[in-house]
Amino acid sequence: MTQPLIRPDLVTSPAGPFLAAAELTQTEARSTSSHSHARGQLMGALSGLVSVGLDRQQWVVPAIHAIWIPPHYEHSVRSYGPFSGWSVFITEQRCEQLPREPRAIKTTPLLREAVRRVASWPGVELDDAQTRIAEVIVDELAASKEESLDLPRPDDARLVRLTDALVGDLSDNRRLDEWAVWAGLAPRTLSRRFVAETGMTFAQWRQQARLLRALELVADGMPVTTIALELGYDNVSAFIDMFRRAMGTTPGRYLAAEASTSSPAAYSAAPPA
């Protein structure tokens, strides 16, 4: 049974401090079923990877990133293997000036250090000095830029069947026209419906699905060659090129950065809150 990350009243009640935080490190997978709460939640990863189900979308939270979940949004959570991360809970009233829709962000050293400080507090009303640190978290979230770490799910039953098949075997390299025949759609209809329902072309959607799966496999420590083959790439170089274009670095450097970010030295290098 999954243990609560933080005292329930600091998640569901407007009473108490306007902002509370908790950190979590565990070796086993963690999973919570779909739920919502009155406070907004900012969920970040330091090492490993966690996925968040939001509406018809699946989001991933790789290291040094976070997902913002506004108040009352239904969501589910699942981690993959060893995981270290944190969550911040903000009262609904203080969320009025924050993003109204879920978003992924890249965290800053300042944000991570402020969260670490707040997570050490007992969950009672904040004094003036603590309030200033808590306000840093709110300001950093409000100023953050949105990152693309989600995978939209279509409504059309034929597209749902197709995307489920794609996710079930991302090494399947059939072209759009071949998938159209499989789904019983004209290629132009499939292409048009994909854009209308997901905001992405068929090729973009498949690449995004492969990227999110790659992040999961990298977090699990799978060799890059194995990941490339599992995702349908003809060679490792093609996979690394895709990963670099999307994440700004290679899988190996990404994993090294993740390890250094989650170490105590990374905290000491962060600017003081």
UniProtKB/TrEMBL annotation:
One of its GO terms (molecular function) is DNA-binding transcription factor activity. It comes from the Bacteria. Residues 160-257 form the HTH araC/xylS-type domain. Keywords: Activator, DNA-binding, Repressor, Transcription, Transcription regulation. The keyword Transcription applies. CDD domains: cupin_NimR-like_N. It holds the Pfam family AraC_binding. The keyword Transcription applies. This is AraC-like DNA-binding protein.
